[in-house]
Amino acid sequence: MKLVTAIIRETQLEAVRTSLIEAEITRITVSSVSGHGRQVREEIYRGRKVIPGLIPKIKIEVAVNDDYVQTTIDAIIKGAKTTDNGYDGTVGDGKIFITPLEETIRIRTGEKGSSAI
Amino acid sequence: MKLFTKKLSLLMGLLLLAATGTVWAGEGNNIDTGATAWMLTSTALVLLMIPGLAMFYGGLVRTKNVLGTMMHSFAAMGVMSVIWAVVGYSMCFGDNVLGGWFGWNPDYIGLRGIDTSIMEGGVPEYVFTMFQGKFAIITPALIAGAFAERVSFKGYMVFIALWGLLVYNPLCHWVWAEDGFLFNLGANGAIDFAGGTVVHISAGISGLVAALYIGARRGFPITSMPPSNLVMTMIGAGLLWVGWFGFNAGSSVTSGLSTAQALTATQVAAASGALTWLIVEGWHQGKATALGFASGILAGLVAVTPAAGVVQPMGALALGAIASVICYLAILLKNRLGYDDSLDAFGVHGVGGIVGALLLTFFIRDSWMEEAAAAAGGSWTVMQQFGVQALAVLIAIVYAAVLTLVLLWIINKFIPMRAKTNDEMKGLDDSYHGERAYGMISPH
User: Fold this and answer.
1) Per-residue pLDDT for A51 more than 80?
2) Within a domain: residue B437?
3) For chain A, what is the domain count?
4) What pLDDT does B16 receive?
5) Is the pTM of this model over 0.90?
6) Which candidate in A7, A8, A9, A10 is best for mutational testing of the B interface (most B CBs within 10 A)?
7) CB contact under 8 A, B425 and A56
8) Segment holding B104, helix H or strand E
9) What is the dihedral of CA A62, A66, A68, A74, to 10 degrees?
10) Does a structural domain hold residue B147?
11) Range of the domain at B272
12) Distance separating alpha carbons of residues A10 and B427, to the nearest angstrom
């Protein structure tokens, strides 16, 4: 079992959710986060350009069985990579982290392991 | 602007003329401080409806579009006020030109000829023109609800400017100017006290046409599009209700009996509309929602807008309740048909306005009907007046729909009305305004 954590653009959440659902991965957790990366984002405040210290992002967490790791990664990349205007991805599209998952327990039944995912 | 007020002041003017032999029109009128004070208050109240509408609409869209949506209302305050001062007042309240298509009066250009003008009701003309100008602001701002979350800002700005000039101003002239052809339709005119046809039907129909022309939002109707902040929507609905007293009771352009009649009708219709929506929704869905209550307030207020001058409280109660049920059904039908009138500009304003303008016929107070009968030279029946109302509504629908479609088609050749896919996904706030509604400098 693996925990797939993806940090993506706020604007791509809709696309990532759609592609995950198409890949039949429907159990996800989404949260609003903010952080530093290489991306610089400008906002305008009374005619002055302002670069906020922290950029808002979306974090998606998906717990999957090993067989599904690649499918999940592919689906996330498909949705999160910005490919319009002729770009093949732009700085700020985000990252995916994969961590080993020691145990999964379904609260309602107490069942453990792969079947609880 | 209202029929019997005009008739009344005309009558008083004639009496004055007979009594003193002086010319009563123009600058010789004395200021009626009571009427002027109320009209100043009404003018401010109607302006308050526009930030109210901004909050109402802003709360209903997704977080990424809050500022862009509020800007639709605020930008209208800028665009329409400037146009109003330059040519709008002249086009609405000048004398018939081009076969009565709109009005024109060189004195009204730039409002330069009314510096010392006091109207026959004792109200300075500046107050009347500013009061009327607020109606010209809110009408295009209402349309924005139909194509919220996907319209380009530049396209919207050009659209409301042209729409104001070519749709609002002629309609306003037809219905409210003394030589307008709808003002003089039938025995005693088509009844549109405070803007059922001019404001709500025209905005609602144009919204529907624009929503169909621009197309649905990305992901509609599969993706859920939750309201960003219903608290703000409730505050907005409250401000609209309060502001509506200026809108309706101010439309008497006096401070007297007809003002009180309009004010009472407004309160009763809003309350019965809200309550009816709550009951219908509670019965149909099992929950009485806050947004439902707010929608009911609007349905009631919209329906009583054309009627406020001619119906008594129980008539207003019935109109509010009927409009609420029909608007509720219209929104159910919208979901069935699948077009994306995002914030129900047509469902509430278009449908509510049509219901109000037609059904008010059955609740007109007797004195008005007697006046109409006298004007018609004997008799004037409810069905005859219904015919007049139906014709006025039909003309407003056809004119607004056709002109809106033509305007959109032309503007789209130069400035795309539809936001680019990526801009729509990022949200209007970031794409067009470079800002975020909540937590701008340090997010969260």
Assistant:
1) no
2) no
3) 1
4) 44
5) no
6) A10
7) no
8) strand B102-104
9) 80
10) yes
11) 38-418
12) 10
Specify if B128 maps to a domain: yes
Q: What is the pLDDT of residue B15?
A: 44
CB contact under 8 A, B444 and A53: no
β-sheet bridge partners, residue B95: B104
Cβ–Cβ below 8 Å for B443 and A52: yes
What is the separation of C-alpha B64 from the centre of its chain, rounded to a whole number of angstroms? 28
Instruction: Answer for the pair B427, B64: CB distance below 8 angstroms, yes or no.
Output: yes
Confidence at residue A89, expressed as pLDDT on a 0 to 100 scale:
83
Pick from B422, B425, B440: CB nearest A43: B440
Name residue B103's beta-bridge partners.
B96
Contacting residues of B for A89, CB less than 8 Å apart: none
Tell me which residue in A10, A56, A84 faces B421 most closely, judged by beta carbons: A84
Please, what is the Cα angle at A82 between A65 and A36, to 5 degrees? Answer: 80
Number of domains into which chain B is organized: 1
Q: Is A23 on the interface with B (CB under 8 A)?
A: no
Instruction: With respect to residue B6, please indicate whether it lies within any of the assigned structural domains.
Output: no
Q: Which three-class secondary structure state does DSSP give residue B120?
A: coil
Q: Torsion angle, CA of B326/B329/B333/B339, rounded to 10 degrees?
A: 70
Residue at B165: amino acid letter: L
Residue A85's pLDDT band, with cuts at 50, 70 and 90, is low
pLDDT range class, residue A82, cuts 50, 70, 90 = confident
CATH of the domain at A87: 3.30.70.120
Domain CATH number, residue B218: 1.10.3430.10
Amino acid B23: pLDDT: 38
Residue A18: domain span: 2-116
In DSSP terms, B361 is beta-bridged to: none
pLDDT number for residue B439: 66
Segments of chain B scoring below 50 in pLDDT: 1-8, 10-26, 441-444
Smallest CA–CA separation between B435 and chain A, in Å?
6
CB distance B427 to B420 below 8 Å? no
> Is residue B221 reached through a cis peptide bond, with omega within 30 degrees of 0 on the bond before it?
yes
Test A43 with B427 for CB contact under 8 angstroms: no
- DSSP type of residue B111: G
